[in-house]
Every structure is written in C-alpha cells, then in structure tokens.
From TrEMBL:
Pfam families: FecCD (PF01032). Belongs to the binding-protein-dependent transport system permease family. FecCD subfamily. It is a multi-pass membrane protein. This is Iron chelate uptake ABC transporter family permease subunit. The chain crosses the membrane at residues 12-36, 71-89, 101-119, 125-145, 152-169, 198-218, 244-271, 283-303, 315-332. Keywords: Cell membrane, Membrane, Transmembrane, Transmembrane helix, Transport.
Length: 337
C-alpha cells in the first residue's frame, strides 16, 4: 500500500510544481509586457512610480492605456481561441479538429471581406460578418460531413476542403474589390493586436465572456459527447442539439476573435493539448485551455513586439510560424497512432 501512495504523492508534487512554474512564468511575462523597454521603465524605481501613479504623463499613457489594453486584448482573445479549440477538438475527438484546420476562421475571414466590400471599414459590421461567415462555413462542414452520423476524421477532411474553397474565393474577392478595401483586408488578414484600445476591446469582451460562460455550462454535455454518441444518447443527452449548440459557441468565439484582430492561427490548435498535458488529464479542460490560450497569445505578442529591433510584427505571423512546426509534429504523432 505504501508504494502506490508514494507514487501518487510524487505525481501530485510534479503536477503542482509544473503548474507553479507556469503561473510564475505567466506573472513574469505580464510584468515584462507592461514595463519592458527603456522608453517606459529603466529601473525598478520607474516601475514603482508607474504602479503608484507618480510617473510622468507620457509613461502612464504608454503603460496603462496602450500596453495594458493590448495585454488585456491578448488575454481575452487567447482565452476565446483556446476554448474554441477545446470545444471542436472535443466534438471531433481528434487533436487536429480545431478551427485552424477545419476552416471556420477562414469562413470568418470571408464574412469580414464581404462586409468590407459592401459596408466599408465599419467595426460592428465586420464583427457581424465574421460571425455569419464562420457559422456559414460550419454549416457547410456539418452538412457535407454527415453520413448517418459524424465521424471526426470526416469532419476534418471536409473542413480542409471547405477551407481551401473559401481561401480561393477570398483571393478572388480581394482582386475584385477596390484597392483601398483590398489593402485594408490585407493588413487585417495578418492578424495583429496593433492599435488595440480599451474602447475597442471592452464591447467585444462582454460577448466573449458571455460565450465562455455558456461553454462552461455545456461542459458536462461536452464530456458526455466525448464518450460517443450512443453513450451520450443513452444518458439522456440530445446529441445533435448539443453538438449544434457547442458548434455555435465555438464558431462564435473564433469569429469574434477573428473580427477583432484578424485570423490568428496555432492558439486554438495547441492550447487544449498543452493544457491536457499540464493537468495530466485525458479529458480536454475548458478552463485550462482558456488559461493556456491566453498565455500563448501574450507570449507570441511579446515576441512580435520585442523579437526584432525597431519593428513590431503582426502577432499572426509569429503564431503561424510556431503553428506550422507544431502541426507537423501533431500529424506525425497522429500518423504513428
């Protein structure tokens, strides 16, 4: 009896130590994101003055208006992408079943392009267009993948096909609209947190938090669906209705994030799997996925801001570079299985 108890204690200690290291790293990253840079704070005295409100007006604006709003945007959007990826990977029961692969973010991009072409660069029309475009692509995938039920592998294959079709349509549309609209779409499609302000992120935050709350309420149904449609139906769950509601929540989270910043890859693909390994759990955790998604996007944005001297890259370029490497690893691992 002593050996199993010691093994469980050792495993618990390792898990707590890992989580503690991640929390410490997150706090250091947040601190660096706010205060890193000679133009803001060159010593701890400057940091203390910023915290206590004794810094110059310029320093306060840079930290609390520009950097803090950008940091908050990365946290809330990263959490939305992480939960969206967790929902779809749970429904598909495959780590490749994220909005990046199945093309829902491409559908959201299509919706924004059409909104820009018809209504111009109007923020809330872009948000609505992203949601409708994401839902449209999800409906197409759901319809074409249905064959007496849904197979995770079939959903992924159909999603890739729909994504390729919508990508071709987006390129055609970009060539037919006005030059100004095409340039706006090109800048937006890179996926960037540049120019994020409190005024821009707070209204969308309300919608994202509401969708996150709904996803948590549906967490039990999601875990039952992971056990298989027959098992979930035997336990009294309406399989198709639950799947459609979860798909709506996941697509809406992806679409909102896409409408605010442009398409950002990798986060929804990697966050659920990293969270599952950190928690030593076979099931996908929504809360863990949200926290890891927020951490990944904050880290990627820090690299985008400070990784290259005198230039700030769109965070989407950083995430897609990391995501390409991770996707190759994931495909190889899944192929071995």
């Amino acid at each position: 009896m002593i050996l199993p108890i010691r093994q469980r204690s050792s495993s618990l200690f390792k898990n707590n130590f890992t989580v503690s290291c991640v929390v410490l790293f997150s706090l250091l990253l947040i601190f660096a994101t706010l205060f890193f840079g000679k133009q803001v704070a060159s010593s701890f005295d400057d940091v203390w003055q910023l915290i206590t409100g004794q810094a110059t007006h310029y320093q306060s604006i840079v930290v609390w208006q520009w950097r803090a709003s950008r940091l908050f945007s990365a946290i809330i959007i990263g959490a939305a992408l992480g939960v969206s990826g967790a929902v779809f990977q749970s429904l598909v029961r495959n780590p490749l079943g994220s909005p990046d692969i199945t093309g829902f973010n491409v559908g959201a991009f299509t919706g924004v392009l059409i909104s820009l072409a018809v209504f111009g660069n109007v923020y809330w029309f872009s948000v609505l267009g992203a949601i409708l475009g994401g839902l449209f692509s999800a409906i197409l995938v759901y319809i074409f993948a249905y064959r007496d039920g849904h197979s995770g592998f079939r959903l992924i294959i159909v999603g890739i096909a729909i994504s390729a079709t919508l990508t071709a349509f987006n390129q055609w549309l970009s060539l037919t609209v006005s030059l100004e609209t095409a340039m706006t779409a090109a800048l937006w499609s890179a996926g960037s947190l540049n120019g994020m302000t409190w005024l821009r992120i707070l209204p969308a935050t309300t919608l994202i938090i509401a969708l996150l709350a709904v996803s948590l309420l549906l967490n039990t149904r999601m875990k039952l669906l992971e056990m298989g449609d027959d098992t979930a139906a035997a336990l009294g769950i309406s399989v198709n209705k639950s799947r459609l509601v979860l798909m709506f929540v996941g697509v809406s989270l992806t679409a909102l994030a896409t409408a605010i910043t442009g398409p950002i890859s990798f986060i929804s693909l990697a966050a659920p799997q990293i969270a599952r390994r950190l928690q030593k759990d076979q099931n996908i955790s929504l809360i863990g996925s949200a926290l890891v998604g927020a951490l990944l996007l904050v880290l990627a944005d820090f690299i985008a801001q400070h990784g290259w001297e005198n230039s700030t890259l769109p965070v989407g370029l950083v995430t897609i570079s990391l995501g390409g490497v991770y996707l190759v690893y994931l495909i190889i691992r899944e192929g071995k299985k």
